[in-house]
Amino acid sequence: MPRTTRRSVKQRLQYIQVIQELQEEIKLLQISNEKLNGEGLDGLSYTELASLETMLKEGCRIVEEQTDKAQQELLLREIVDCDVMGKEWLDEKEKEDLAYQSLLARRRTAMRNKARELRLSPQDSQKEHSYNHETLMLTIECLKVEKERLRVLNQRMIGKELDGMGYSELLVFSCAIQGGMLKAEEEKKKIKRARQTLQKLKASSTYARVCHLDSRIVSAALSEVDCHLPCVELFHPEAKTRALDEEFDKCMWKIVYHVSYDIVG
Q1: pLDDT at 207 (0 to 100)
Q2: Distance CA 63, CA 8 (A)
Q3: Residue 11 near residue 19 (C-beta atoms within 8 A)
Q4: What is the pTM assigned to this prediction?
Q5: Could you read off the pLDDT of 167-190 as tens digits, one per residue?
Q6: CA distances (Å), 260 to each of 40, 160, 185, 243, in order?
Q7: Residue 39 Rama label (left phi>0; alpha psi -120 to 50; beta)
Q8: Out of the domains of life, which is the source (predicted)?
Q9: What residues contact residue 218 under an 8 Å CB cut-off, 6+ apart?
Q10: 11-44 in b/e burial notation, b at 16+ Cβ within 10 A?
Q11: How many CB atoms lie within 10 A of CB 53?
Q12: What is the pLDDT of residue 89?
């Protein structure tokens, strides 16, 4: 271990602070990237899902426009290259380019899944940072590169910073955006169905029977489905009637299912 001085200790602490700040920024970018790709949407409200879907739709529109332009440019280049290299060479090159971009997309998915796994896994102890200043500086540079990579990916998912992207790359990104849109739309449909089911339940005799249950029983039922205790107010006779808030959207379908089939049945 190199000889430490007050100045070197202070410098090391500054490096560590920068590392921790970058790690937090990367964590937020990772979460945003997951949501843009339609992952980790369980905790989002209907309004948040609608906002996400709107951003992705706009991004998809812009990317598709850019894809059409890139395709036209590619066709113009191929007219010239075809005379020189031949059509078979062009077809093979196009297949290789598309295969390469698809490979990069799979790698991004694997990296995203691994990052999520590491982020959600329990941390037994705080990682000890190196005492070597060069190692700390290298770590900072690597984190800056990762931060920029995630930032650009997120921007491209909403149709920004597309300059320099080729036809095949834009095509693959367009598919990723559409996948995120479909997943966000599906989550919205789940919430909408839960709301409709709950309204039917409240209008039926089943709801009247549930309202007479002791609050402790309802609390236990909600606990089993990992819902929050404030949701008991929807069923307890002493609670005031109120409309469904966005904060309850993520667990409404669980409540409806549990009440309809487990408690009453």
Answers
A1: 53
A2: 49
A3: no
A4: 0.68
A5: 889 999 899 999 999 999 999 998
A6: 27, 46, 26, 19
A7: beta
A8: Eukaryota
A9: 210, 232, 235, 236, 263
A10: ebeebeebbeebeebbeebbebbbbbbbbbbeeb
A11: 19
A12: 72
Contact present, 156 and 175 (Cβ < 8 Å) = no
Residues of the chain with pLDDT under 50: 1, 213-214, 216-218, 220-222, 224-254, 256-265
AA letter at 25? E
Q: What is the pLDDT of residues 185-196, one digit of tens each?
A: 999 998 888 888
The two three-digit tokens of residue 40, written as one number = 């980790």
Rg (CA), the chain: 26
How long, in residues, is the chain?
265
Q: How far apart are CA 194 and CA 44, in angstroms?
A: 14
Do residues 185 and 207 lie in contact, with contact meaning Cβ atoms separated by under 8 Å? no
Please tell me whether residue 262 adopts helix, strand or coil conformation.
Answer: helix
Q: What amino acid is encoded at 93 in this protein?
A: K
Neighbours of 81 (CB within 10 A): 15
What the block records as the tokens of 16 is 């560590």
Task: Give the pair of three-digit tokens for residue 174.
Answer: 């367009």
- What residue ranges do the domains of the chain occupy? 6-120+130-188, 204-263
Q: Which residue has the tokens 């062009």?
A: 90
